[in-house]
Amino acid sequence: MEIVNDAHCQLSRTRVRAVIDVHSVDDIQSAITRCQREGWQLSMSGGRHSLGRQPFVTDGLVLNMSGLNRILSLDETSGMLHLQGGARWTDVRKFLGSQPERVPWEVHQKQTGADELSLGGAIAVNAHGNPLGAGPISTDIEWLKVLTAGGEELLCSRDVNADLFGLVLGGMGLFGVVTEIGLRLVPTQRFVRRSEVARTETLIEHWDALHVDYQYGDMQLDVNPASDHFMKRGILNLWQSCDAPATPASKQLQADWAQLITLAHVDKAQGFREYARFAEAVNGSVSTGRDFHWDTYAPGYHAQLERHLGLPQGGDVLTEFFVPIEALEDLLDYARNEIRRFGVDPILTSLRSVRQCQISYLRWARCDYACMVMALHVDDCPQQLARLDAFCAAIARFCGQQGGTFYLPYRQFAQHADLLDMYPNIHEFVEEKHRRDPSGLLSSDWFGSLLSFLREAPALGTR
Ligand SMILES: Cc1cc2nc3c(=O)[nH]c(=O)nc-3n(C[C@H](O)[C@H](O)[C@H](O)COP(=O)(O)OP(=O)(O)OC[C@H]3O[C@@H](n4cnc5c(N)ncnc54)[C@H](O)[C@@H]3O)c2cc1C
Fold this sequence. Notes:
The protein has 463 residues and is an alpha+beta fold.
């Protein structure tokens, strides 16, 4: 037996039978056979950045997909990148960085704030980045090879095994192991960055126009609950394609991430001032898309902060909520009050946009949404975690009432009625899972709790 944990917060300790390092499809097939023989369950992990035990199953085997990480080919004409399911964004970056200038392709989107995330993990949650006017990553996936619970490797796409394709994209690793991926890249462009302090009402007022004029964007809000500007202003970052030459690398500034994250914990007012100073310095700089997607945190930073600041053990827990743009202002008002009422500690709150997803079966992007991403500091103690979950459940319920939703790869906090409102086909999703994997071989603690949750709750249609 061994204990595994998530990489970012270390708040998902789980006892598993063993971790299997995967280097080939045969390794996965052997693990499936072993689980079938022994009656064990099997889960799979990539970068272990989901925060609700999605990659682990108690007393089961865990596939560590990190060794199945080769970039297999790039079609220089179409921009199709063929890679293995355990490859991380860092592998993609390294590969693209090694390509000659004449190969004009780059990634369309990836998750922000972390690079050591696998493509298989991104597909399992249907991840999204900060493009304006684009759906989640499923829109960039052309085809997948998936090893099912029955041990069969199937190709799927919009045309071939389309049902499986939709189930795997956003399917939380329950419908098979993604072994190979066809990821569509986009032509390399240069972007000029506009960064300035702005009011949230200005963002909301100009929302549609920003989607026409800019290709990427987000707003990092002032997260100081003591300030009159709390979640009413932020740094608006926008990237617009341009023909201007790139700013020389020596002049391309990087935010002092360690300083900003420390200030977010101990002096949020100063943190905002520092970030505003950084925004002013980078405003007008020109970079290629190859440069600006990459954005990671220092592994183990929270343990270091705990040592330096004398904090108890804990983490900065991520969570994401979505509402139609018409409801964003109300969501911000509601969240502002609830943060103060619950006394939770926001370290980061950013706003983004995502377009409706048509492909994934278990869709979180059911409409065009404004997105609110939050990182909330929490001590590793039951009372604080319960308070955090209650806060998230309240925000999720509010979003549901506005026709919005919340994101599944983080902690499980939603109340039953809210889950059904926001994921109305979740029963059908589970039925499909039982049909395709009757023995429940591929599983996770996240899925186990979902099943108990659905079993305990009133049947669909009785509400
Ligand atoms: C700091 C941070 C920043 C983040 N930023 C964003 C963001 O900007 N946008 C966003 O959308 N999300 C974001 N996330 C969430 C992140 O996208 C998901 O948690 C994602 O699943 C992480 O990928 P991973 O490789 O770490 O997957 P893991 O956590 O290892 O696994 C997550 C899920 O993927 C499944 N899985 C893993 N590998 C495979 C495979 N090969 N085949 C099939 N299923 C597989 C697992 O079973 C599990 O259900 C962020 C998370 C953190 C901690």
